[in-house]
Task: inverse folding
C-alpha cells in the first residue's frame, strides 16, 4: 500500500468521543487529540456523554470539547448522536478511555484523500506500557511506525471515515449491544471499499480489563452479539464453539474416567482436554507474535485466554438463546395470525 501523501489542505474534522463515567481518562483523551496539531479552527471535538454520573461532562467542557448528553440507547445510538451533530467532512471516532498519537489525524486523512477506494482507516489498539499483566496480555504495548495494511474490520476505538459515507450507510446499528463496529465494517466492504489499519493511527487503550475477572465480564458483553456481526469466516467464533463443546463434554468424560476407569475413557478425556486447550493456546500464541514479549508471559497469557473464551462463550450462548426465543416468538405470532 502506498504511504500517505502530503496534504495541500486541512479539511474540517469532527472527533467523536463516546464516554460513560470516564472522568479518569477524558482529559487525557482530549489533550491527545489537540496534540495532533490539526488546526483548531478545523477541529471539532464532540464528547457524547452517555448517562455519566461523575464529572465526565464538566471535565470535557473544561478541556475544550462540546458535550452532547444522551440518556437512552445502546452504543450505536451514542455513536450516531455524534455522527448527526458532526460538522466536519471527516469523522474520527476514539473512545473516552483512549489516547491517540500525534500522527493520528494526519495519517488517516492523508490516506483517505489519496485513495478513493479506501472507506475507513483505523489502527491497532495498544495496552499502556505500565499496565497490569492482564492488560499487557490482551494487547501489545508497542507497534512499528509507518505501516498500513488491508483488514476486514476496524474497531471504533480508532475509526476515521468520510462523514457522508457513514450517513449514507444510515449510521451504526442501534440494536446491537456490541459489535456495531464490525457491522459497519462489513457494510463498508460490501460497497467495494477497503478498510485499512495504519500503525500511525494506533491508540493506547487505558480501559482494558486489569484483572482476570474483568476480562471474563468484558468478553461476555463482546460475545453477546457476535453472531449478528460474524463475517464469512470467523475463526474466533469457531474457536468459541470448540471451547464450549469441549467444556460441556468434559464433566461427562471426567465422570466416566472415575467410575469406569480404563484406557479408552482416559484417552477420550485427554483428547477433550487437549482440544479445550487449543483456543487459549492460539490466543496466547497470537499475542506473543504481535510484539516482542518475554516468554515468561506465556502462562499468564494462557490464563487470560481461558478467561477470554469462557466469557466470550457465555456471551455467544446468550446470543443464541436470544435469537432462538425471538424466532419462536415470531413463529407463534405467525401461527396465531393464521388462525
Result:
Amino acid at each position: 500500500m502506498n504511504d500517505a501523501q502530503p496534504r495541500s489542505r486541512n479539511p474540517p474534522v469532527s472527533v467523536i468521543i463516546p464516554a460513560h463515567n470516564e472522568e479518569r481518562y477524558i482529559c487525557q483523551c482530549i489533550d491527545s487529540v489537540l496534540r495532533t496539531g490539526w488546526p483548531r479552527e478545523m477541529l471539532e471535538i464532540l464528547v457524547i456523554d452517555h448517562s455519566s454520573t461523575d464529572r465526565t461532562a464538566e471535565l470535557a467542557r473544561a478541556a475544550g470539547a462540546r458535550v452532547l448528553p444522551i440518556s437512552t440507547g445502546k452504543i450505536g445510538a451514542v455513536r450516531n448522536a455524534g455522527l448527526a451533530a458532526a460538522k466536519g467532512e471527516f469523522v474520527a471516532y476514539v473512545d473516552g478511555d483512549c489516547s491517540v498519537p500525534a500522527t493520528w489525524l494526519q495519517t488517516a486523512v492523508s490516506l483517505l484523500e489519496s485513495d478513493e477506494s479506501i472507506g475507513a482507516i483505523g489502527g491497532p489498539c495498544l495496552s499502556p506500557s505500565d499496565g497490569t499483566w492482564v492488560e499487557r496480555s490482551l494487547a501489545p504495548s508497542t507497534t512499528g511506525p509507518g505501516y498500513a495494511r488491508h483488514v476486514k474490520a476496524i474497531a471504533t476505538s480508532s475509526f476515521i471515515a468520510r462523514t457522508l459515507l457513514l450517513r449514507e450507510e444510515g449510521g451504526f446499528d442501534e440494536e446491537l449491544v456490541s459489535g456495531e463496529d464490525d457491522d459497519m465494517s462489513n457494510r463498508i466492504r460490501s460497497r467495494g471499499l477497503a478498510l485499512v489499519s495504519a500503525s500511525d493511527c494506533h491508540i493506547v487503550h487505558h480501559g482494558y480489563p486489569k484483572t482476570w475477572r474483568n476480562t471474563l465480564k468484558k468478553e461476555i458483553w463482546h460475545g453477546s452479539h457476535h453472531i449478528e456481526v460474524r463475517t464469512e469466516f470467523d475463526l474466533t467464533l469457531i474457536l468459541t464453539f470448540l471451547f464450549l463443546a469441549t467444556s460441556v463434554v468434559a464433566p461427562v468424560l471426567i465422570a466416566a474416567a472415575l467410575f469406569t476407569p480404563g484406557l479408552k475413557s482416559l484417552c477420550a478425556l485427554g483428547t477433550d482436554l487437549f482440544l479445550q486447550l487449543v483456543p487459549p493456546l492460539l490466543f496466547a500464541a497470537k499475542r506473543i507474535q504481535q510484539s516482542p514479549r518475554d516468554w515468561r508471559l506465556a502462562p499468564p497469557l494462557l490464563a487470560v485466554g481461558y478467561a477470554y473464551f469462557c466469557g466470550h462463550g457465555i456471551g455467544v450462548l446468550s446470543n443464541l438463546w436470544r435469537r432462538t426465543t425471538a424466532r419462536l416468538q415470531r413463529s407463534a405470532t405467525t401461527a396465531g395470525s393464521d388462525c
User: Anything to note?
Assistant: The two ends are 60 Å apart (CA to CA).
